[in-house]
Amino acid sequence: MRVCNRCNLPREASLYGKNRGTCNFCRQEQSRLKYLRNREKRLAQCKAYNQKHREKIKAYQVEWWQTEKAKKACILSHQKYIAKNRDKVNARARLHYALKKGYVKRQPCEVCGKKAEAHHPDYARPLDVNWLCRAHHVEEHFSV
To answer: What is the DSSP string of the chain?
Structure first.
């Protein structure tokens, strides 16, 4: 057990970096506060770098997405999403099937009348949807 120089709490020795007097929790908090103080400057630096090296970044991304590691990561991520959101996936699949078979017809946006997408207020009733355009759908999800 060592005592942190910053929070003065005794912590496991494994929670300290090599030759560090502060624990990982305090260092993480310091890092977070430093980021928040310099957030705008850091975002501007990242944006400038991305604009300057756009072609190099794009080439790297194209190359990476062709690797087996990327494909496996994508499949794993998709499988995790399905396992975590089984009710959403089932509701979307049932609605898609009903649209394909003609049991349900796509409607215009209920608010503005533009081309719409389905919004499930309740995933337990997969065919009971609100038809909203993209803008109103996003608004529905992010409204308080």
So the answer is: -EE-TTT--EE-GGGB-TT-SSBHHHHHHHHHHHHHHTHHHHHHHHHHHHHHTHHHHHHHHHHHHTSHHHHHHHHHHHHHHHHHTHHHHHHHHHHHHHHHHTSS---B-TTT-SB-EEE-S-TTSTT--EEE-HHHHHHHHH--
pLDDT at 19: 80
Name which of 51-55, 60-64, 69-73, 140-144 the model is least confident about.
140-144
- 72/132 Cα distance (integer angstroms): 34
Q: What is the pLDDT of residues 30-68, one digit of tens each?
A: 999 999 999 999 999 999 999 999 999 999 999 999 999
User: What does the alpha-carbon distance between residue 19 and residue 107 come to, in Å, rounded to a whole number?
Assistant: 65
